[in-house]
């Protein structure tokens, strides 16, 4: 497993431990995030619900657009 994938898997495990297992996750086309979530899904018990992975370049745009308001605050 690549170091980036290990870091992504550690991040998702920590997030799941703190906030509970999500039903679905929206990620970009990152291969490390995809492989980390697939690895987590593979390790789940048979009765546990799987994490649905939504991959799109534009799914996280609403989250990322939050920075626009901050950029308009300072007056030159």
Summary, kept brief:
The protein is mainly alpha-helical.
Mean pLDDT metric: 81
Beta strand %: 5-15%
How many runs of DSSP E, i.e. beta strands? 2
Summed up, the helix count is 4
Q: Strand order within the widest sheet?
A: 1-2
Subunit arrangement of the protein? single chain
The structural class is mainly alpha
Low-pLDDT residue intervals, each spanning 5 or more residues: none
Report the span from N to C terminus: 48 Å
* Radius of gyration based on Cα positions: 16 Å
The structural domain count equals 1
Q: Given the C-alpha coordinates, what overall shape results?
A: elongated
Sketch the topology as an H/E string, one letter per element: HEHEHH
Helix content: 40-55%
Largest sheet: 2 strands, parallel
Characterization of this structure:
This protein is mainly alpha-helical. The chain has one domain. The chain is built from 4 helices and 2 strands; from the N terminus they run αβαβαα. The protein has a two-stranded parallel ribbon. Helix 2 links the parallel strand 1 and strand 2. Helix 1 crosses helix 2. The N and C termini lie far apart (48 Å).
Topology at a glance:
Elements: H1 3-19, E1 24-27, H2 31-42, E2 52-55, H3 61-64, H4 67-72
Parallel strand pairs: 1-2
Helix pairs in contact: 1-2
């Amino acid at each position: 497993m690549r170091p980036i994938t290990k870091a992504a898997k550690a991040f998702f495990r920590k997030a799941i431990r703190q906030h509970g297992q999500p039903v679905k996750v929206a990620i970009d086309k990152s291969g490390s995030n995809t492989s980390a979530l697939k690895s987590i899904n593979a390790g789940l018990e048979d009765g546990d619900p799987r994490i649905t992975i939504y991959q799109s370049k534009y799914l996280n745009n609403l989250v990322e657009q939050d920075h626009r308001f901050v950029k308009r605050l300072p007056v030159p």
